[in-house]
Write a structure and sequence with these properties.
Chain lengths: 183, 219
């Protein structure tokens, strides 16, 4: 039996784009000599707001449909360091990117596309400043490898908690097949 | 704590699929409508099992049962090893395409959790459900007939058996036997029954033969 195909291919891409919102906001502030501000600023704001709006719609859709799953913790790691690494180490070079000539801008957009693909491919769409602002912490849960029929793939639970304890069952809404948000 | 049927907090829908080597169990995300239908299936099964306060009888693979019965088995029983395993499983794999190929479908199930977090699982052999209603189905939507272009699955009205509080309650023995993989047990019991019948016939023949001999000797 083949492993299941991951759901929400496009929505996950939008979620990754949403996680880039701080970058687009900074670009809107900095501006670019290549495009007039009347186009560049609304464009950046659109890229910052629209994907985040779609992410919020996905959360709302999961709540409306009661798309819930009970997840049992076998081992949980608090990965708050991920968001710091992401916001500063990954996006920092882009904050200072030179958008004043075409070649530099094209190179920056290409590098951004690579990062988008990697984050989408590696299911890292949970890294979002919006969740951090709402008080959610990121926990990577590893299922019990000895469980005969259970999933062996780690998944992410976003919870407003400081810790998840072993054996605890948590009611969650499904954001994607690998990311769940505590009810 | 015993499972509380009156305070079901969450419902998950899943399917058991036939794999290359063994069966796989997967969660297929469902919306409120499906969850309500599954709750109704549970309620119907419960009503049938506990109708008239009749006592449940222990299931035995050697017995021949009707299409519906009121049977039980302890989850410690050797006949429910598979059920014990699946009941203990947590974090099943999510598969939104779990119903994409109905020919691999063995059974479908629902996981219910009450407000205390206690679990109940209901299973149903995929027979009616497996028969996908293809296109050209007419339905009433906003007072006009429409063609439904999607594949449709029809849920049954009750479960074959339910598992909770360390017991398996069986309503449809055939569905339970089919999904339990009890063929070996049934075959062994059938062989035992057959051999005991042969023994009985043999001893009866011997008795008749010796009796006749005795009669003729005396005669």
């Amino acid at each position: 039996m083949k492993p299941p195909k991951e759901a929400f291919q496009f929505t996950r891409l939008i979620m990754v784009l949403s996680s880039m919102a701080p970058l687009f906001l900074l670009w809107a502030v900095r501006g670019s000599s290549l495009l007039p501000n009347q186009y560049f600023i609304p464009g950046c704001l659109f890229m910052a707001i629209a994907p985040t709006g779609l992410l919020l719609l996905r959360v709302r859709a999961a709540k409306t449909a009661n798309d819930c799953q009970t997840k049992t913790v076998f081992r949980a790691d608090d990965h708050k360091d991920h968001i710091l690494v992401y916001l500063f180490a990954t996006l920092l070079p882009f904050y200072t990117a030179d958008l004043q000539n075409y070649r530099e801008s094209a190179a920056t957009l290409l590098a951004l596309a690579f990062i988008l693909f990697l984050f989408w491919h590696l299911n890292m769409h949970y890294m979002n400043l919006l969740f951090a602002l709402q008080g959610y912490r990121v926990f990577t849960v590893t299922p019990d490898a000895k469980d005969a029929h259970g999933s062996k793939t780690p998944f992410v639970i976003l919870a407003k908690r400081t810790a998840l304890t072993e054996g605890e069952a948590i009611e969650t809404y499904r954001l994607s097949d690998t990311v769940f948000i505590q009810k | 704590m015993p499972f509380n049927f009156d305070s079901i907090k969450s419902v998950e829908f899943g399917v058991c699929l036939e794999g290359d080597e063994n069966e796989t169990y997967r969660i297929v995300p469902s919306d409120k409508g499906v969850q309500t239908a599954l709750k109704e299936m549970l309620e119907a099964t419960r009503a049938q099992l506990f109708r008239d306060d009749e006592k449940l009888v222990e299931f035995s693979p050697a017995e021949k049962y009707g299409s519906t019965e009121r049977l039980y088995l302890s989850l410690d029983s050797e006949f429910v090893t598979k059920h014990r395993e699946i009941f203990a499983t947590e974090n099943l794999v999510t598969d939104t395409h779990g119903l994409a190929d109905p020919k691999h479908l063995i059974s479908y199930f629902a996981i219910f959790r009450d407000s205390n977090g206690d679990k109940l699982m209901g299973f149903r052999r995929a027979a009616q459900f497996k028969g996908v209603i293809k296109k050209n189905l007419v339905t009433f939507l906003d007072d006009t007939l429409k063609i439904v272009e999607d594949d449709l699955f029809k849920l049954d009205t009750d479960f074959d058996y339910i598992i909770y509080d360390d017991q398996v309650l069986i309503w449809r023995p055939s569905g339970f036997i089919f999904t339990a993989g009890m063929d070996e047990h049934i075959a062994a019991c059938a062989a035992a029954n057959a051999s005991s019948s042969v023994c009985a016939v043999k001893s009866a023949t011997l008795y008749t033969h010796s009796h006749r001999t005795m009669v003729s000797a005396h005669g």
